Fold:
Amino acid sequence: MEAQGVRTAQLRIGDQIEAWHRGRLFHRGRVTDVVPHLELFWILDARTGTRKLLDPEALEIRHVEPPAVPGAPVKPATQMPEAQPKPLATA
Structure:
């Protein structure tokens, strides 16, 4: 039985994915190679740093946001308009 999630044909090199099986996270990483007509793809595993061939028939593949880059500037949080201080009235 095929697992639900992203199909191999929907993956692109550089995509960040997670591979789940029975509600447990098995792999997370960046797609390094895709062979859609064979339903095969490889990732660079974020935990081990090794290249892994994943079986999309046995795993649920999900796209995820790429991890934050160390040293990258962080965007400040924006405030809701009603939470911003009101200017002082001058007399």
Remarks:
- The two ends are 75 Å apart (CA to CA).
